[in-house]
Amino acid sequence: MISIDKDVFENTEIAFAHKTDKELQKAKWLFSLIGNNKLVSIGTSLADFALKLHFPLSPFFRYTVYEHFCGGETFDECKTTIAKLNKSHVYAMLNYGVELKEREEDFDKTIEKNIEALEFGGKNKDVKVLCIKITGFGRFGLFEKMQEGKTLTEAESQELERVKDRLDKLCLSAEKNNVSIYVDAEESWIQDALDGMVEEAMAKYNHKKAVVFNTLQMYRWDRLDYLHKELRAAKAKGYILGAKLVRGAYMEKERERAQKMGYKSPISIDKEAVDKDFDTAMNYCLDHLDHVSVCIASQSEESNMLAIKHIDAKHIDRKHPHILFSQLYGMGDNITFNLARLGFNASKYLPYGPVKDVIPYLIRRAQENTSVAGQMGRELRLLTAEIQRRKAVE
């Protein structure tokens, strides 16, 4: 077993071994742009505007943010990316990155694409997970109405049954292909409605192993209690709780809506509170691995270090099948690849799909990244350090 040094996440040679000199320079340039909040704000607004007018943005995005943050448009392109990850013993978490659809035919197409991904994963041992959004195959307004407790019309009830059938079809395919499904978290004003469907799916499919995972956004002050409640339910009903832990992705939107509509914000008071809840939830899951399968999805060096120290202190196998670490593809390489070298199950969240359809996802990701204090600066510092290290050894 490789021992853990306190500066393990500073090892840029391992972090960027998969990148050529040219790719390092391009990544440094890209993060310099993304690190400029004003530039990102202007750029995303222009991209939104261009999308509405159907301007051809694909070529620009393909060779910049798409190429850096996505696995490819097709499975053949993804195979190349997955093979590169595999060389460093890093797994892939696929995500069909198409968002903002509202038509039934689009929902059905999304299910077809996700089943294709599950079957692809079933033939590729390095694909462990498919990440999905229920709003990818169900209407946002329907989930809002459900959560508000309003009575659904007969047509809406039939619509809901189609959503549940789609989810069940995915779960069945996931079980068959030995690939887990991670259901992404979404806005708080539809999350309860989505949680109910995911809980039903876990109770049905998670008896032998965790096929279905729910995502908990730990920037919400109520998620720690929710985690405790869900573990009690899993124990009572005899299934394994699948929990993907993230900090969260809709902070500003959530606070603005709460203030506008006059209700208590679901977001914790400050970053310290979020970090505390995330780390507490993480350790809680690691202490209950007989009933919990956990994905620690964090870009935080501190949280990942805390997790690996906890695992070793408890003498838990670093390759325990109920533990998976994950970072975004294109970011946090210093965490992912060093975790893999230490013998932990490490993975990358890998979006794929047609460039024009994935642009909304990329816009959202750019907006989220600029809101994380120090994120861009850290990426730039590490990339610069590796560029300088390579020049020094030439």
Q: What attributes does this structure have?
A:
single chain, 394 residues, alpha/beta, TIM Barrel, 16 helices, globular
What does this entry look like structurally?
This protein has 394 residues and is of the alpha/beta class. It has a single domain (8-393), classed as TIM Barrel. It is 57% helix and 12% strand. It has an eight-stranded parallel beta barrel with strand order 1-2-3-4-5-6-7-8, surrounded by seven helices. Strand 4, helix 10 and strand 5 form a beta-alpha-beta unit. The two termini are 31 Å apart.
Structure summarized in a few sentences:
The chain has 394 residues and is α/β, with parallel strands linked by helices. The chain is built from 16 helices and eight strands.
